[in-house]
Write a structure and sequence with these properties.
The chain has 10 helices and 16 strands. It is of the alpha/beta class. It folds into 2 domains: 102 residues, translation initiation factor eif-2b, domain 1 (Four Helix Bundle (Hemerythrin (Met), subunit A), Up-down Bundle), CATH 1.20.120.420; 193 residues, Rossmann fold (3-Layer(aba) Sandwich), CATH 3.40.50. The chain has a 7-stranded mixed beta sheet with strand order 6-5-4-7-10-15-16. Strands 11-8-9-14 form a 4-stranded mixed beta sheet, covered by helices on one side. Strands 1-2-3 form a 3-stranded antiparallel beta sheet. Helix 6 links the parallel strand 4 and strand 5. The longest helix is centred in the middle third of the chain and has 26 residues. The radius of gyration is 18 Å and the shape is globular.
């Protein structure tokens, strides 16, 4: 199943806000529809956003204002702007967009194989945060592609998936994908991750990335930095898996990465039910930045980087 694709002159994508309850495909025919889908996280994940941006330029049909709105829909994930810019500069936008889609398919498989080859041993226990599988790409994904490859090679003992507050991408999406691939897994609350690392029950932490600075500092879903600190203290490899398009050479370090702040209601409510008393406000940074000295390796479709 493809998370996002070009079908009969429109974009078709999985509405990730409906998972795991139901599998719904959205048909997107305008840039404004696509921007709305991106902002409400119907489509999310750095590689998938790159493909969405690329295909969205085709929908724009040369409308520069629409292209600008699409490019700015989410500020932290560099892949969105990267996909928009590549196709906007192409002579044949559809051909360029489909090339980006096909390159993502190949990159996901290559990252899975390269990442699995980097890890030593069998019956590995992997910890991960957010969702980095096929739902975050076109197919297979980034960090979860490594997990899938390990599982296909009978080298996976278990995945500990962090729930990923406040929108529960780990609880809703990662567990759904792991169940579909038949991989053994358990769900863990976010704050338990560092403690479980300290107990010695994890062989590696695998995460994705929304933007990687030139020095290796990595922006990923909020909670990643805490896992990196726990992994460093426990002596557990902390590995970032992301395509080359996620590396932003224009950002010298993590200090130059814009961090998206999302609506307070995502923290204050669940399913429309308010958790906190009226009058309580919330801070809701969607991402954090892990310094490069806490990262064991960055795995892309082309290479392994050791910051």
């Amino acid at each position: 199943m493809r998370t996002i694709d070009w079908v009969d002159g429109a974009i078709e994508l999985v509405d990730q806000t409906k998972l795991p309850g139901e599998l719904v495909m959205l048909r997107v025919t305008t840039v404004d529809e696509l921007v709305g889908a991106i902002r409400r996280l119907s489509v999310r994940g750095a590689p998938a956003l790159g493909v969405a941006g690329a295909l969205g330029v085709v929908l724009a049909g040369g409308d520069q204002a629409a292209i600008a709105r699409l490019r700015a829909a989410r500020p932290t994930a560099v892949n969105l702007a990267w996909g928009v810019d590549r196709v906007a500069a192409a002579g044949d936008p559809l051909k360029a967009a489909l090339r980006i889609r096909d390159d993502d398919l190949a990159a996901s498989r290559a990252m899975g194989e390269r990442g699995a080859g980097l890890l030593e041993g069998d019956r590995l226990r992997i910890m991960t945060i957010c969702n980095t599988g096929g739902l975050a790409a076109v197919e297979r994904g980034t960090a979860l592609s490594v997990v899938q490859t390990l599982h296909e090679r009978a080298r996976l003992a278990e995945v500990l998936a962090l729930e990923t507050r406040p929108l529960l991408q780990g609880a809703r999406l990662t567990t759904w994908e792991l169940a579909r691939m038949g991989a053994p897994h358990r769900l863990v609350i976010d704050s338990a991750g560092p403690y479980l690392l300290a107990r010695g029950g994890v062989d590696a932490v695998l995460i994705g990335a929304d933007r990687i600075a030139a020095n290796g500092d990595t922006a990923n879903k909020i909670g990643s930095y805490a896992l990196a600190l726990g992994a460093e203290r426990a002596g557990v490899p902390f590995i970032v898996v992301a395509p080359e398009s996620t590396i932003d050479q224009a950002a010298p370090s993590g200090d130059h990465i814009a961090i998206e702040d999302r609506a307070a209601d995502e923290v204050l409510t669940i399913g429309g039910v308010r958790l906190a008393p009226d009058g309580t406000d919330a801070l809701n940074p969607a991402f954090d930045v892990t310094p490069h000295d806490l990262i064991t390796a960055i795995v892309t479709e082309r290479r392994v980087i050791r910051p």
